[in-house]
Structure formats: C-alpha cells, structure tokens
Amino acid sequence: MRKTTLITGEAGYIGSHTALALINAGHHVVVLDNLCNSCRESIARLELLTHTRVDFISGMIGEDPNGRPNNLLPCLAQVAIGRIPELTVYGCDYPTVDGTCVRDYIHVVDLANGHLKALEVLDNQEGVNSWNLGTGIGYSVLQIIHSFEDITGITIPYRFAPRREGDIAKFWADPSKAVCDLGWSAERDLEQMIVDTWRWQSRNPQGYQSSFERPALRAVK
C-alpha cells in the first residue's frame, strides 16, 4: 500500500522538488497550498514530470516567488536575465574573507532528498526529531557572485548597501547528525547549484508566467 504524504506549500521551490522526490519514491502526495507566494503552474509542471517518471531536474520547476526574491541565487538569476536591474549586497565590512556575509548554500534536490530520508527514518521511530540539512561549507556573497559570473559568463551589476539589522557575519549548518542518523549528505556542489539555477531562469525568463510548450504525456504505467 502506498504511503500518503501531505505537503504544505508544495507549489513553492522546496515543496515542488520535495514532492517530486516523494512521488518518485512511491508516495501518494496530497497538496495543500494557498498560492500566496507561488503559482499553480508549478503544480501543473510537477504533474507533467511525474507522469513521465522523470527522476532528474530538467529546468521545468524552479524558484519563482511573488515579488523580489529573498534568496541570493534567484536574485542573481533575475539580475542576469534582466528582471532586476542590479543586485543589492547588504554590508561590506563584516569580519569575513571579503567583508560580505558568509552562508551555507544547498541544492534543492539534496534538500528534498533529505526530507525523504527523514520521513523514512520517522516511520520507524516515535516522537519528534530534528536534523540540520546543509553542506557544512560557507560561501560569501561576493564569492557566490563571482562564481555565478564565471559559470554563466554574465557580468552581474551590484551595489553595496548598509548592513541589515539582525544579519550575522557568518554561519553554516552542521549536518553531522543527518549523516549519522539518516545516511544523508549533500551531493551537489556550488557549481551544480548555479548551473541548475541558471538553466531554470534562462528557460523561464519570466518564471512560471513564461510561455511553456508541453510535450505529449505518455500513459502512466
């Protein structure tokens, strides 16, 4: 009997990729999403992917929040494609390698697979648990910008602005508990994150509002 899993916020970036991982692992997924920061097109494309049993990311689903993105990589992609005129870097005087904040970045597929591993473990234990999912490696904002430029060949215009209240200089995840308990670790590096982010944005310049030609669906086996 297939397991039924409820995903809240499935139409979003992490939710859609987690749903893809769960469906391909044999779960029946039930979606709950009010679409306040996402788009119904995400669900349509997920259905297309799962009907054809695609088990890799093809640039059909990606991060497309309503309004300006809060995360660095989608901001970079929208600047590169011309949706945002320039990137704002908050703070250039932190005690880091180049004065900009350092954070841990993780590929959304690794994050989705981490959720899947956690569900499998929780099936066999009672109570509540928590795990940090990350690479354990920190990159500064400028390091991310320069890596994006090197990989895509696109120059990113940016400007410095004052620090944001509450931002700390650097932090990253300690995934050692997830490695031990779940047998999970991030497999994709920064280059792969940037390649896949740019693949999504370049194929969908206006996000989910972009025109999209759907191939004919094959019958589900």
Automatic annotation (TrEMBL):
It catalyses: UDP-alpha-D-glucose = UDP-alpha-D-galactose. Its EC number is 5.1.3.2. It is an enzyme of class 5 (isomerase). Residues 6-44 form the NAD-dependent epimerase/dehydratase domain. InterPro entries: Epimerase_deHydtase, NAD(P)-bd_dom, NAD(P)-bd_dom_sf. Residues 70-196 form the NAD(P)-binding domain. Its cofactor is NAD(+). Signal peptide: none annotated. Keywords: Carbohydrate metabolism, Galactose metabolism, Isomerase, NAD. Pathway: Carbohydrate metabolism; galactose metabolism. PANTHER family: UDP-GLUCOSE 4-EPIMERASE. Belongs to the NAD(P)-dependent epimerase/dehydratase family. This is UDP-glucose 4-epimerase. It comes from Pseudomonas arsenicoxydans.
